Automatic annotation (TrEMBL):
Pfam families per the UniProt record, alphabetical: 2OG-FeII_Oxy_2
Gene source species: Cylindrotheca closterium
Boundaries of every Fe2OG dioxygenase domain copy: 140-276
PROSITE patterns the record matches: FE2OG_OXY
Protein name, entry field: Fe2OG dioxygenase domain-containing protein
Listed SUPFAM superfamilies: Clavaminate synthase-like
Gene3D superfamilies reported for this sequence: Alpha-ketoglutarate-dependent dioxygenase AlkB-like (2.60.120.590)
Amino acid sequence: MATKKLDDDDDLNNRRNQTIIKATPIVATNDSWVTLYEDVLDPTDDDSEQILHELYQNLPWNVETDQFGPQSRPTCYFADPECTFSYVGLKLDPPSTGSTPGNNKWHPTVQKLRECVTRLLAVAGPDDPSSPSNESSRPLLTACLVNLYPQNKGFIPWHSDEIRAHGKDKVVASLSLGGPRRFQLRRRRRVDSCNHHTEEGETKPRMVADLWLPSGSVLLMKGEVQEHFEHCLPLEPEIIGDDAAAGDDAEMSFKKRQEDVTINPLRISLTFRSIVPGYESSNNRTIATDQ
Ligand SMILES: O=C(O)CCC(=O)C(=O)O
Ligand SMILES: [Fe+2]
């Protein structure tokens, strides 16, 4: 994707293709993997900035209403035929052309990014157990929920993704554009038969990760991650620390800092998913309520 401008220059293309993608394991147990891949898109290439603004302006954003009310950010959904995503009382179907029901209509840029993330997961390494196996003949990434976090707005509260339709690999691979925005991951709490809260791995700290997702990175969640963990993307408070209460100088310096730094910058995430075509219709499932 980032090589678009270099199409006529094989030498440069070759060099770019050798760019090192940094992989940081965040969770790696026998059934759950969370890995952050950085520099999947080159952040120094203005392409990622251009793609961010193209998607921001051109995608058909919509604030969906789920069982808890209007969602905390606009989204839009692309998917292969019959790849319905049902979560929190909401059913998202693949876009259709209108006259041809079920005809898939991926936005061309989202489609190119799907190919880019598919390539990343394919080369993530056969020795890496977090690398999805995709033994079926259909594409691994069949759907994409795109999330918009407008500047100083847009967040996602603590939740686990509803992945019952995501097949064996249970892949959610989130490509970040813009930002950075904060991402937190913690162990899930469960209520036992006596109505007591219990935590998975009670001897370990509950919070597992608290990091900033850089533009051009991909956060892969795979396996039983949603079963054992929950995640969120909070909004940072606009006033940090005691500065506002600490007198004129501090207030001035805070205002200055605000001019220099956008605390919650515009971000778009493309969450590519391994939804199995026909799963929801053939299972005629009831809607889960775990977000
Ligand atoms: O924006 C992200 O990277 C993750 C979004 C998310 O948690 C979701 O769509 O379920
Ligand atoms: Fe999520």
